[in-house]
Design a protein that fits this description.
By secondary structure, the chain is mostly beta strands. It has 2 helices and 16 strands. The chain is elongated, with a radius of gyration of 19 Å.
Length: 207
């Protein structure tokens, strides 16, 4: 069984916080029941009370949010904490049910090049060679090399050494073994409502 690596909220205090497009939200100062307080600036300090429900994940050094700069400035920049129920509107049905308790660990796609890739039942998919907009290219074999262009949407997670896919050996051989990349929209059919919204950018860390 693959389990998502988790980080406790208390472990991100004093860590860097960023929104979309690397927008800085300063440093995490406090964890509330439904919000994270971050503070930016040294002389003129800005405080942001950001909903926990907008957290993308923690990569070991930075806490990432699904928040734009404009949204941070207009909705979350304030001097006092929100009321208990103010941020419930940011909670969605597809969200991690335990978001108040822990944060998912994430890693960037470019960090898994040359890592081992495996499918269901420990089936080897070789080594990660390239990251495309909607696929991962893996290659197996030394003399007779097999290439697999696998949808990002079928990733289960990365455990620090191996990238795991929800792909069977039969599926890999019949659907994803090919010599050329898929067209841009070919793999959208593998995306489901439960697929992480930012899977093109981040991978969940597993253990």
């Amino acid at each position: 069984m693959i389990n998502i690596q988790k980080t406790n909220w208390n472990d991100v205090v004093k860590k860097e916080a960023k929104g979309l497009h690397d927008f800085s939200l300063g440093e995490v100062q406090e964890i509330g029941p439904s919000f994270i307080l971050t503070q930016k600036g040294t002389v003129s300090k800005s405080k942001y009370y950001i909903p926990k429900y907008l957290v993308r994940g923690f990569d070991g050094s930075t806490l990432w949010f699904n928040v734009t700069e404009g949204q941070a400035e207009t909705e979350f920049k304030r001097d006092t904490p929100p009321a208990v129920n103010d941020y419930q509107k940011y909670r969605t049905s597809g969200m991690n049910a335990e978001i108040e308790t822990w944060i998912p660990r994430i890693t960037a796609w470019n960090e898994i090049i040359k890592k081992e890739a495996k499918g269901v039942n420990d089936f080897s998919l070789g080594e990660v060679q390239e990251i495309g907009p909607s696929f991962i290219l893996t290659q197996k074999g030394t003399v007779s090399k097999s290439k697999y262009y696998i949808p990002k949407y079928l990733v289960r997670g990365f455990d620090g050494s191996t990238l795991w896919f929800n792909v069977t050996e039969g599926q890999a051989e019949t659907e994803f073994k090919r010599d050329t990349p898929p067209a841009v929209n070919d793999y959208q059919k593998y995306r489901t409502t439960s697929t992480a919204a930012d899977v093109e950018t981040w991978i969940p860390m597993t253990q």
